[in-house]
From TrEMBL:
Record's protein name: NADPH2:quinone reductase
Alphabetized UniProt keyword annotations: NADP, Oxidoreductase
InterPro entries given in the database record: ADH-like_C, ADH-like_N, ER, GroES-like_sf, NAD(P)-bd_dom_sf, QOR-like, Quin_OxRdtase/zeta-crystal_CS
Coiled-coil annotated spans: none
PANTHER family linked to this entry: QUINONE OXIDOREDUCTASE PIG3-RELATED, QUINONE OXIDOREDUCTASE-RELATED
Originating species: Eoetvoesiella caeni
Length: 328
């Protein structure tokens, strides 16, 4: 039976004010879907890209791709989940900003009882991102020194902890002494305040002139050239976000002039493309949390109807760690 639930919708791209709380129809799940009564929703920078129109989607549409909750109904073809299961997901079609919704079952994993719903909503997209970056895109072995931009952000805090557990030294970048202290408290070896220091010069100094084999960069336009200057010859530039705007107009010759560098622009979806791959990546993430190698840091909570305020805080770089939307 179709039910009605509260959800955030946008009818036109724009600022935070474009998001409206509405009542929407929720039909029974399709054959390969599950209905999830949501307990908490994760907020991510990609949500801002879809709201603003940087990432295109047919209008009107919902927002969000990460949440946790309880399975309320199961489609006929679903075998790995049942009604009543505690679950989470971090990769789904848009629409997570809602009380309940249908989600393709392949995106959904069981949430261990040792991990809370709030932690599940805060960790899935950011934690799975850290997993594919550190364990798939460039598989850290231990002993490396790496550069990770936005080290005090949601992904950055997880990556700092995960890398430290692997025996890797993380040089993080942040925009304030408070954020630098937070990154260090979460495992960063050294932190560079890019508003006061020259990042490339400090990396050269910290590595004894060796630079780093890999840079993880979610900032985009503002840090592109600096990131390349921090890499060793044949190093890998991992550009996985556009917080300052997209990187464009790049001449490939710059990669040669700076040391035969490699560049990749990876996406989470290509690393967890099947239910088996999703379960394996999530399982590794959950194991790290349960072993207390990773602590989920939730810096901000907003009720669903204040999603606009949450977006404004995230875009204004006023957040620390993860931000979640709460549901009654």
């Amino acid at each position: 039976m179709t039910q009605q639930v509260k959800a955030i919708r946008i009818e036109a791209n724009g600022g935070p004010e474009a998001m409206k709380l509405a009542m929407v129809d929720l039909p029974p799940p399709g054959t390969d879907e599950v209905t999830i009564r949501q307990k908490a929703v994760g907020l991510n920078f990609i949500d801002i890209y879809f709201r603003s129109g940087l990432y295109k989607q047919s209008l009107p549409h919902g927002l969000g791709c990460e949440a946790s909750g309880i399975v309320e109904a199961v489609g006929a073809n679903v075998r790995h989940l049942k009604v009543g299961d505690r679950v989470a997901y971090g990769q789904s079609p848009l629409g997570a900003y809602a009380e309940a919704r249908n989600v393709p079952a392949n995106f959904v994993v069981k949430l261990p009882s040792a991990i809370s719903f709030e932690e599940g909503a805060a960790i899935m997209l950011k934690g799975l991102t850290a997993q594919y970056l550190l364990r798939q895109t460039y598989r850290l072995q231990g002993g490396e020194t790496i550069l990770f931009h936005a080290a005090a952000g949601g992904v950055g805090l997880i990556a700092c902890q995960w890398a430290k557990a692997l025996g890797v030294k993380v040089i993080g970048t942040t925009s304030s002494p408070e954020k630098a202290a937070l990154a260090k408290a979460n495992g960063a070896w050294e932190v560079i305040d890019y508003t006061r220091e020259n990042v490339a010069e400090r990396v050269l100094e910290l590595t004894g002139g060796n630079k780093v084999p890999v840079v993880y960069d979610s900032v985009g336009k503002d840090t592109w050239l600096t990131s390349l200057d921090c890499l060793q010859p044949r190093g890998l530039m991992v550009s996985f976000g556009n917080a300052s705007g997209p990187v464009d107009g790049v001449s490939l010759g710059i990669l040669a002039s700076k040391g035969s560098l490699y560049v990749t622009r990876p996406m989470l979806g290509d690393h967890v493309a099947t239910q088996e791959k999703m379960a394996a990546a999530a399982g590794e993430l959950f194991d790290m949390i349960i072993a207390k190698n990773i602590k989920v840091h939730i810096g901000q909570r907003f009720p669903l109807h204040e999603a606009g305020k949450a977006h404004a805080a995230l875009a204004g770089r006023q957040t620390r760690g993860a931000t979640i939307l709460t549901l009654d």
